[in-house]
């Protein structure tokens, strides 16, 4: 209904913008199928910019969404799902809770596996409800969109794009189990491209390379549980047999929140567009409340501390350890924390329910950033050149932390094992040892020195796909080969067969020749021998 | 000497431009080591633009150069070489001459091989003379450059860059024998990335894939003759052991005149920047002389015909066949031809010594383009959306023609075998069959729809390398691995050994267990048996 009421206005606005801005040929209509949580946060900027350029945006989301809400720059359409907003909140909270649970490795893995199984079943049921909601799907068909912008972390958007026969633009950081690399046919040699969750850098020892290969072997098995059901669902809805690879590889362009300052250099494919740092383009002046904190910090400046939007509470003992460490540095610490305040909180530590992270990091008085090393936070640290103390909790955070640490731009702590001393020492190191600041400033200069801003690049490619109804000229022919053809195994087999065949014939000819030449002599000898007997 | 006299002026101009243009932080000094011939033509635009942005350019070239001449926007320094300008002219002329020689395939190959051997020996001697010219090299050291821009087709520039310890930017179309892909560690699966000179597309039959693999096996051997001496020369001059791979891979950024409209999608590396179409950004209005030809052509319009700067003469018989075919179309043909005019030249065919190719192709009355399918010409055809009749002569021209033909944007003719009818029919086809025009217009739209112009991109990356003294963050760790490490062969061997070891131990244990369980029975039976005996 929101679409119907906002549609004509958006269209009029679009037309007006077209007249005012001659670079826009005509307004187009984009269907956006995001993923809730932190994934949504970086997509919003792109949607906002596309709307400014006169396009009409329709966002669809489950009724139980937390972060995806009504906004002025897009129409929101919600579809009913068989779970509640509270279920999603509990699931998010569990992620943070599990990260602080000090249980043996195998038990932790089993718990995470169980949680992934439960959560993915819930999300799949939401997707299934969308696809089987005939009325809702019919309204999408009627809306006559030009393209789909989706986060393939949940491939539901990919199925909808195929159902509507629309070109898709994927927007993501990375997919688990290197599914993004497989779907784009992007080579990623295991010898120097570290697998996700390996905590390897691009320079690996022999044993680290062994680990990398083992992870690559295992990840297919692990991800099939979560992702295979989407292929089955797609096959059912689209009424043709589809693999997960078919489903994901149908995207025209992949907008990836990566760059080669945070990530290690590796092969890329023509339809992969790197837009890392898209979330930290501009910093705004901070509010009076935070300005007061910063001004009061004096010559020592401030430290920004946040474990991200997913972690709201920390076990009391751990919170007290942290508070103790924070009290031992001369800087003022602004800590985003919604749990019960630790009783030993020092005077220099201010607890806040929310903080303007990127704006604070951009303040010249900010000396360090304590972060869980989510990709958003790490890019904000790089953009603003603030050395980091990283406490990775789950997902790609360990890898992000490893990348920053290997570049000398921060210190990584194990949140479960670290002591109060460890944190205090790490903070003192990144603040007082000039090399950390120098390294992060070097990374910052490299990161920000680019021919085109990531937001403009993202907007360009979404518009490109809408203008040209896809980008088939960027799709490698590798998609049309079987795995043995891709690796030329049939050709190698054929050439080997010829070489062996020729060698065999040559050997036989030689043998025959030898028999012909020396055969008589031999038989004569034999004859002699037999006579002698 | 030119540098000394122009240096301060250029510096002053640079400073002035810096003040006027705040986007330039400070003027830098670039050493340019180009390759003569058509390679030089597309580099000129980049140099011109860099000079406009206030940088100081010094071009060094052998005294025997043909195309590289004095110009207002760079300083030229020439070094003596043991060959004459006439030798270079003869060598270029031979290329065109050989292309029209109707000799058996093997004989042609033998001739080309001999020519390549002769020419490369001459060029190598030029490079050796430069590197051993102490005075000249000392003047380069003193000039205190910030970076080197070079065409690695002759790796002399790469050696100079290493000698001066400067970061290098490579500017090229592609290197023979996929040396560019090897030097950048760029994966290029033989199953869908066609090898140079194979005339394959990205969709190959089984036998085409066999051909592709065979070419890949052969090319190492073929190129070593031409390129290995540069590694030996580099090792001698730099006084450390270097392979050709070391030499070429030292470049910070590779500016490649490619794009995915002309070229097939394939993996790329972070330091490969695609600037295809850099030579045909803007068309200028044509001169009165050519305007008169175009106006006189009436409703039928014109056909532009050029076989490039390297081919000046065509055997008389072939020229007459061509002239005959050209006379059979209603269009006016503008033919760039410096040889003796064929006696049967029709009235609609105008011979000119030179023509403003890109500007003419940009004219709305141009109906077709007869070209040798050099990369410059093909991009000009794409930029301006003019369908092509292609007569590839040598080098990458066959591959370029194949790419355009496979996209339905032109017709390829074998210049040796084609008859007058073939050419006339091909011309009529590309002019009258609308699909050719539609396809080239589609390619043109895709090619020109880009987030940033290739010239700006090239200038950005040259400046980036100068600003940051290289781009080590784009260099993949693959360079630090041996070939067996790169392919994880050591890891695979190790894991296989473990699996086989475990299987062996398990088998032995089972066998031992079996013997323990059934052993007594067996020996009892045996005992019985022996007793029975």
Automatic annotation (TrEMBL), chains A, B:
Organism of origin: Spermophilus dauricus
Transmembrane segments: 491-511
Keyword check for Protein biosynthesis: no
Membrane topology: Single-pass membrane protein
Gene3D superfamilies: Glycogen Phosphorylase B
Similarity field: Belongs to the UDP-glycosyltransferase family.
Xref: Pfam families: UDPGT
Catalyzed reactions per annotation: glucuronate acceptor + UDP-alpha-D-glucuronate = acceptor beta-D-glucuronoside + UDP + H(+)
A molecular function GO annotation: glucuronosyltransferase activity
Signal peptide feature range: 1-27
Name recorded for this polypeptide: UDP-glucuronosyltransferase
Keywords (A to Z) from UniProt: Endoplasmic reticulum, Glycoprotein, Glycosyltransferase, Membrane, Signal, Transferase, Transmembrane, Transmembrane helix
EC category name: transferase
Lineage, uppermost ranks: Eukaryota, Metazoa, Chordata, Craniata, Vertebrata
Its EC number(s): 2.4.1.17
GO cellular component: endoplasmic reticulum membrane
Subcellular location as annotated: Endoplasmic reticulum membrane; Membrane
Record carries keyword Glycoprotein: yes
């Amino acid at each position: 209904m929101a679409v119907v009421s906002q549609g004509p206005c958006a269209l009029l606005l679009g037309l007006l913008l077209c007249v005012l801005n001659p670079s826009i040929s005509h307004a187009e209509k984009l269907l956006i199928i995001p993923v809730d949580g932190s994934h949504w946060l970086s997509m919003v900027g792109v949607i906002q910019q596309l709307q400014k350029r006169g396009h009409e945006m329709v966002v669809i989301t489950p009724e139980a969404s937390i972060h995806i809400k009504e906004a002025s720059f897009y129409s929101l359409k919600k579809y009913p799902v068989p779970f509640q907003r509270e279920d999603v909140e509990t699931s998010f909270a569990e992620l943070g809770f599990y990260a602080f649970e000090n249980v043996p490795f195998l038990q932790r893995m089993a718990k995470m596996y169980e949680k992934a199984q439960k959560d993915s079943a819930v999300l799949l049921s939401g997707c299934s409800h969308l696809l089987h909601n005939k009325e809702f799907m019919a309204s999408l068909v009627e809306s006559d969109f030009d393209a789909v912008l989706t986060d393939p972390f949940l491939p539901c958007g990919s199925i909808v794009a195929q159902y509507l026969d629309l070109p898709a633009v994927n927007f993501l950081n990375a997919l688990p189990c290197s599914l993004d690399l497989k779907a784009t046919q992007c080579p990623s040699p295991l010898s120097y491209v570290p697998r996700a969750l390996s905590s390897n850098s691009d320079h690996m020892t022999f044993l680290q390379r062994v680990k990398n290969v083992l992870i690559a072997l295992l990840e297919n098995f692990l991800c099939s549980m979560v992702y295979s059901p989407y292929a089955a669902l797609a096959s059912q809805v689209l009424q043709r047999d589809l693999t997960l690879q078919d489903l994901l590889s149908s995207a025209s362009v992949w907008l990836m929140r990566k760059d080669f300052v945070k990530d290690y250099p590796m092969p890329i494919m023509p339809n992969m567009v790197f837009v890392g740092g898209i979330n930290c383009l501009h910093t705004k002046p901070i509010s009076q409340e935070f300005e007061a904190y910063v001004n009061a910090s004096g010559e020592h400046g401030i430290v920004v501390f946040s474990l991200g939007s997913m972690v709201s509470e920390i076990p009391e003992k751990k919170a007290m350890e942290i508070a103790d460490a924070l009290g031992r540095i001369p800087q003022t610490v602004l800590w985003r924390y919604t749990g019960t305040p630790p009783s030993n909180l020092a005077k220099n530590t201010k607890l806040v329910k929310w903080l303007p992270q990127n704006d604070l990091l951009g303040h010249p008085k900010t000396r360090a950033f304590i972060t869980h090393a989510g990709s958003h936070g790490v890019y904000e640290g790089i953009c603003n050149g603030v050395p980091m103390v990283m406490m990775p909790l789950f997902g790609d955070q360990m890898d992000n932390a490893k990348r920053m640490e290997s570049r000398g731009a921060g210190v990584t702590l194990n949140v479960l094992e670290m002591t109060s001393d460890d944190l205090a020492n790490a903070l003192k190191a990144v603040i007082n040892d000039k090399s950390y600041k120098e390294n992060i400033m070097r990374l910052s200069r490299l990161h920000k020195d680019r021919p085109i801003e990531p937001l403009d690049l993202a907007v360009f490619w979404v518009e490109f796909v809408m203008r040209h109804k896809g980008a088939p000229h960027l799709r490698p022919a590798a998609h049309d080969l079987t795995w043995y053809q891709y690796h030329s195994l049939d050709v190698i087999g054929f050439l080997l067969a010829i070489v062996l065949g020729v060698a065999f014939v040559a050997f036989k000819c030689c043998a025959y020749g030898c028999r012909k030449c020396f055969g008589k002599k031999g038989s004569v000898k034999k004859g002699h021998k037999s006579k002698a007997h």
